[in-house]
Amino acid sequence: MNAVFGKKEDIRAWMDLVRLVRDEFPGLETEEAIADHELTVLRFMDKMQAICVKDDEKIVGVLLFSRNRNMICFLAVANDNRRMGVASVLMEKALDELDRYRDITVSTFREEDPKGTAPRALYKKYGFVEDELTVEFGYPNQVLRLPRIFRPMRRFKQQISNEECIEVLKQEPRGVLSMIGDGGYPYGVPMDHFYSEEDGKIYFHCAKEGHKLDAITECDKVSYCVMDQGFRKEGEWALNIRSVIVFGRIKTVTDPEKTKWICTNLVRKFTDDEEYLQHELTHALPRVLCLELIIENMTGKLVNES
C-alpha cells in the first residue's frame, strides 16, 4: 500500500470518495460546496500537494497539504478501508513532504466531539499536541500542532547530557530570555528563573506590563540561555563553561496559588531568609506576574574559552 500524488485524471475517483464522507466534514453539505472543493483539489494537484492511496482504480484515502502554510488541510479514508493503515500511509507521505524544521498544523474536531476520536488519535500518534480552539464553517474545531524538529548540535562531541543540562538550570539563578520584539527585532532580557523537577518547566516572575509581555502575546515561541560559573583545570587560564539553550513556548500563569508557589521557590533560590520571603509574599506578590516556559527542546555543551 503506497501513497502517490494525485493527478487530474484521478479527480473523478477522488471526488467519489469525498462524496461518500461529506457528512463528516462541515462545509461540504451542498453541491456548490462540493464543486468548490473539487476546484481546490485540482489546484492542489497542480502543486503536487494532493496525495492518495489506491485500491486498483478506486481511491480509498486522500490527503491535501500546503507546503507554504506547512499544514495538513484535508484527510479522508473510505469507510470500508478504515483501520487498515490507509491514514497512516497518507500521514507518513505528507510528513515527508512538509518541513519538519517548522511546526506542522492541522485543524480537526474537538476532544468532546465523537467525530474527533479517530482523527485525534491518529494525529497524536505522530506527536501532534493540542493548540488553539477555532471555529470553521460555523463548526467548533481545534488546531493540533506537531512541534518542529530542532537541528542537532554541530559540535556534538561537546554536547552534555540532559541530566547535566537540568543540573545547570537548577543551580544557576539567571539566564537570558530571548523573544521576537518590536519590529521583528530579537529581544533578549536577563531573567531570574526557577526550574521545577516536578513538571520539567522553567518559571519566571516579572511586572504585569511591558515590552516582554507584548512580545510573548504576539509570539509565544522563545529561547532561554543559561551558563554556569565554569571551572579551570590546574595550570590553565581558560574557563570550561557549560551552557544550556532551551527552546519552547511561554505563557502567563493565572492561578494565584501557583503564582505564590513559583515566587516562593524563586526567593528560596537566592536566600533562606524566611522573614524576607514572607515580606515579599505579603507586599510584592500582588504586583507580580509569573511566566511558565514549556520546554520543547533543550541542548547543552561544555566549551573551553581558549
Strand order of the largest sheet: 1-2-3-4-5-7-6
Topology, number of strands: 14
CATH architecture of the largest domain: Roll
Q: Kindly state the percentage of residues in helix.
A: 25-40%
- Percent of residues in β-strands: 25-35%
CATH topology of the largest domain: Pnp Oxidase, Chain A
> What radius of gyration results from the CA coordinates?
25 Å
Low-confidence segments = none
Counted by DSSP, the helix tally is: 8
The global form is elongated
Helix and strand content put the structural class at alpha+beta
Count of all domains: 2
Helix and strand run: EHHEEEHEHEEHEEEEHEEHHE
Q: What is the C-level CATH assignment of the largest domain? A: Mainly Beta
The CATH H-level homologous superfamily of the largest domain: Electron Transport, Fmn-binding Protein, Chain A
Mean pLDDT level? 93
Main beta sheet: 7 strands, mixed
Amino- and carboxy-terminal Cα gap: 56 Å
In short:
This protein is α+β, with helices and mostly antiparallel strands and 306 residues long. Helices cover 30% and strands 35% of the residues.
Describe the structure.
- It is a single chain.
- With 306 residues, this protein is α+β, with helices and mostly antiparallel strands.
- The chain folds into two domains: 3-146, Gcn5-related N-acetyltransferase (GNAT) (Aminopeptidase); 156-304, Pnp Oxidase, Chain A, CATH 2.30.110.10.
- It has helices at residues 11-21, 31-46, 86-97, 117-125, 162-171, 211-218, 256-270, 274-283; strands spanning 3-5, 50-55, 58-66, 71-77, 104-109, 129-136, 139-146, 174-180, 186-192, 194-196, 201-206, 221-227, 240-252, 289-304.
- The strands form two sheets. A seven-stranded mixed β-sheet has the order 1-2-3-4-5-7-6, with helices on both faces.
- Strand 4 (71-77), helix 3 (86-97) and strand 5 (104-109) form a beta-alpha-beta unit.
- The radius of gyration is 25 Å and the shape is elongated.
- The model has no long low-confidence stretch (mean pLDDT 93).
